[in-house]
Structures are given as C-alpha cells and as structure tokens.
Automatic annotation (TrEMBL):
This is Threonine synthase. Residues 2-80 form the Threonine synthase N-terminal domain. Residues 92-330 form the Tryptophan synthase beta chain-like PALP domain. The modification N6-(pyridoxal phosphate)lysine is found at residue 112. It catalyses: O-phospho-L-homoserine + H2O = L-threonine + phosphate. One of its GO terms (molecular function) is pyridoxal phosphate binding. Belongs to the threonine synthase family. It comes from the Bacteria. The lineage of its organism: Bacteria, Pseudomonadati, Pseudomonadota, Gammaproteobacteria, Pseudomonadales. It comes from Pseudomonas frederiksbergensis. Its cofactor is pyridoxal 5'-phosphate. InterPro entries: Ser/Thr_deHydtase_PyrdxlP-BS (IPR000634), Thr_synth_N (IPR029144), Thr_synth_N_sf (IPR037158), Thr_synthase-like (IPR004450), Threonine_Synthase (IPR051166), TrpB-like_PALP (IPR001926), TrpB-like_PALP_sf (IPR036052). PROSITE patterns: DEHYDRATASE_SER_THR. GO terms for biological process: threonine biosynthetic process. Its EC number is 4.2.3.1.
Length: 469
C-alpha cells in the first residue's frame, strides 16, 4: 500500500513512513493511493468476529508490506484487550431504530482510544525495528491529549508534548492528561484556543529545525493511522444491525472531520451507508459548508461540547481531495486561498456530489441540554454533550425511518459534568474504578503564552527524557 499527499507534491510513502511522517512535506495530508474494496459476501462473512479480528480484516490492506500478519494480529489483540467492555464498542438502543454506538469504554473514556491505543503500539513496534527516537507534539481540544498520553506513555522511543487551550477543557479532561507522570510526558497549557494549538503543531511540522535532528510524529487526526483505526467501528456497527444486507446511517459529532471521514471511507470500501450526518456545535464551519457551500473561518466560541470547539477542520482537506478528482494542485490552490482569505466555496457540482451522502446540523448549548434531558427522560440514559448533539442532528436530519440510525457515542458523560448538570439530570455520575481517585491525584502542567517560539524552545529543552535535544 502506497500513500499520496492531498496537495500532490510530496513523495508517495509506504505505511511505516506515513505513520512517522504525519503531515506531508508539501503541507498536505496522506491518503491511500488506492482504497481497498470488499465484496458484500466478504463483509457478511465477518459477522460475529471479535472486534480485534474484524479490525485485522478491515485494516490489513493498509499496512500491507510493512507489518507481517502475525505481528499485526498481536498488536490489535493487545490494543483492544484493554477496553472495559467485552464487545469493545457495544450498541445501545434509544428507540425502535435509533442506536448509540458506545465508543467510550477505553482507558480514557473517549472514542480517541480506538485509534491512539493502536497508534502507541504501532509507533513502539516501528521505532524499535528502526532503532529511532521521535518527538510527538500534539494539540487537543480535550480528548486526544489524554488518549495519546495513555497510548504512548510506555513507549521507550517517544517523547510526548501535548498542547491544550488553557482553561478551555473540562476538569476531567485536564486531569486525565496532567496526572500521568513520566520523563517522556509533558503537558502544555496554551494561553489561546484550540486552533492556536493546532496551528503551532502544523507550523512545527513545516519547520522542524528546532528539534536538532529528531523528527516529529503526529498524533492528531492528520495521522493516517488514526483515520484507519476509526473505519473499523463503522463495519462493526453495521454488522450488528444486519449489514451489509441492509444499509445503515450514521450521525457523527465532529469538529476536525476525522471521525466522519472514516465513515466516508468505510462506504467507499463497500459498506452500504445511506447517510452521514455532520453533527456540530456553535462552531459550525462544517455545517455552513454542507448546508450552503460556504467554508469560511469565523470567531471561535467556547461551548459545553469543548472537543468540537474547532474552527478549522484539518481532515476536511481529505474529502475535498476526492471531490476535486484527487487533483493535488487544485487542493493546494484552494487551501492557499483559505489561508490568505479565510474562506472558499467549491464548484456547484462538487458541492452537490457531497450532499448526496452528507447532511449536517449545528446545535447550540441550549439544544444540547434539552436533548440530554429528553433522552434521560425517555430512556434513563445519560449522554455526554457531544453525543447529545449527534442525537439531535440525527433526529432533525434523518432521511429514512426505515434505515437504522447509529449515533456515535464519543465520550462518557462523566467527563462533562457541567453539561449534565445544566441539563437538569439528577443522576449521580461516577468515574470508573480505574479513575476513581482522579480528583485527588497530583497534576503537572506548564502554562505557556500563545507563542510558537516559546513552545518550540520548551520542547527542545525538555525532549529526550529531560535531556535537551
């Protein structure tokens, strides 16, 4: 399997090199040169497989030529063996044909564990084989950081620096990052918003001279391995609901477009998906594109669903690449225009093509709380605010009641007590046993100004397990 850049000017790479590269040298994102496609018979034969075995069948083509089958099977068994639920991603029914896919049974109680538990193991495997050491600099709007730290904390050949917006993540999210200690773990609170953090990461990839020879690796969803891992649970959910003999629709809470792009890929790989709903909050750049062909940067707002407080959706470039016939030069021009002018529209026929599959809705905080309360009253289930946005969007945008609707349950509600309290849900939420003492643990974090040079100087000074790079 070879991978190419969405901007057309970077060399094609194999999986191992893409894993370590993250962002392409031309500023683009890597995608498979040719997407594998499965027959309906092949997909049907996977019904009833344990999650790690299904993951092997879905992801095997993406790592072909880089990881032997036996090694990859072992990595996957270890990855999903740490999840608290034996089904790994169980479905919970809300009503007759509406389901929540619970993606929060991993170590950090968020869907990011599906990819980042795998990414940490893949990095360890690859770096050990190559005798290399790398630095991770990642940005998080809440959940990626803790999942990345949890997934990479035991990696012998990795130093990890996670940037989060100061005072803009929930207390549980912050503590899940700042209470894990290790010589190779560094938490940085940036006096800015998530987009500021994300921009610093992108700029650091563009010029890595501050590392003095060590290379950067991405853990954000620009890393192809994360997208690859997320494709699996679309197949998993569909197979539980009668797929591939019947189509399934999905509503996906998304800010960076990575999770829903995985669903788009699952469909292109042969899974019958009728509809993909982009569910977002007040920071609605994706909704404005899907509903009106306007991809325009606006002011970022803090909301009750902080993991989606994102104004520039990095992975959206991967969809644009397909919509433009995989023309790298066209995407390079489009993204340059966006950087210069803050927005763009695409040709009408390209937007119309996207609308054949995608619908969208922006949900504000009041509607989020109303949905949490409504679902609790109807079912006794407590939703986190991101999942509630997914439910609201599913109910507003659903094209057919006959087709099962699956809402991606992206996080455990205990991570967002403020939203649950504002919704008026009286049910006491308890942290799982492995996190029961979270609020008593010591924290370690460094607050830095919204300044790229200050951040890069900190990384350079504290890398290599405390020895300056």
């Amino acid at each position: 399997m070879r991978y190419i850049s969405t901007r057309g000017q970077a060399p094609a790479l194999n999986f191992e090199d893409v894993l370590l590269a993250g962002l392409a040298t031309d500023g683009g994102l890597y995608v498979p040169e040719c997407l594998p496609r499965f027959t309906q018979e092949e997909i049907a034969s996977w019904a009833g497989l344990p999650y790690h075995e299904l993951a092997f069948r879905v992801m095997r083509p993406f790592v072909a030529g880089s990881i032997p089958d036996a090694d990859f099977k072992k990595i996957l068994e270890e990855t999903y063996g740490v999840f608290a639920h034996s089904a790994v991603a169980p479905l919970r029914q809300l009503n007759g044909n509406e389901w929540v896919l619970e993606l929060f049974h991993g170590p950090t109680l968020a869907f990011k564990d599906f990819a980042l538990q795998l990414l940490g193991r893949l990095l360890d495997y690859t770096l050990e084989k190559r005798g290399e050491r790398v630095v991770i600099v990642g940005a998080t709007s809440g959940d990626t950081g803790s999942a990345a730290i949890e997934g990479c904390k035991h990696c012998e050949n990795v130093d990890i620096f996670i940037l989060h917006p100061h005072n803009r993540v929930s207390e549980v999210q912050r503590r899940q990052m700042t209470t894990i200690f290790g010589e190779n773990i560094h938490n940085i609170a940036i006096e800015g918003n998530f987009d500021d953090c994300q921009e610093m990461v992108k700029n650091s990839f563009a010029d890595q001279s501050f590392l003095k020879g060590t290379r950067l690796v991405a853990v954000n969803s620009i890393n192809w391995a994360r997208i690859m891992a997320q494709i699996v649970y679309y197949f998993h959910a569909a197979l539980q609901l009668g797929g591939p003999a019947r189509s399934v629709s999905f509503s996906v809470p998304t800010g960076n477009f990575g999770d829903i792009f995985a669903g788009y890929l699952a469909r292109n790989m042969g899974l019958p998906i009728n509809q993909l709903i982009v569910a977002t909050n007040r920071n609605d750049i994706l909704h404005r594109f899907m509903s009106g062909n306007q991809y325009v940067k606006e002011t970022l707002h803090a909301t009750l669903s902080p993991s989606m407080d994102i104004m520039v959706s990095s992975n959206f470039e991967r969809l644009l690449f397909d919509l433009h016939g995989r023309n790298g030069a066209a995407i390079a021009g489009l993204m340059d225009n966006f950087k210069q002018g803050g927005g763009f529209s695409v040709e009408q026929e390209r937007w119309t093509e996207a609308r054949k599959l995608f619908d969208s809705l922006a949900v504000d905080d009041a509607q989020t709380c109303e949905t949490i309360a409504e679902v609790y009253e109807q079912t006794g289930e407590v939703l986190d605010p991101h999942t509630a946005i997914g439910v609201k969007a599913a109910r507003e945008c659903r094209r057919s009641l006959d087709i099962p609707m699956v809402i991606l349950g992206t996080a455990h509600p205990v991570k967002f007590p403020d939203a649950v309290e504002k919704a008026g849900v009286g049910k006491a939420l308890e942290l799982p046993a492995h996190l029961s003492d979270l609020f008593e643990r010591d924290e370690r974090c460094t607050v830095l100004p919204n300044d790229l040079k200050a951040v890069q100087a900190f990384v350079s000074q504290h890398g290599n397990r405390g020895k300056p790079l």
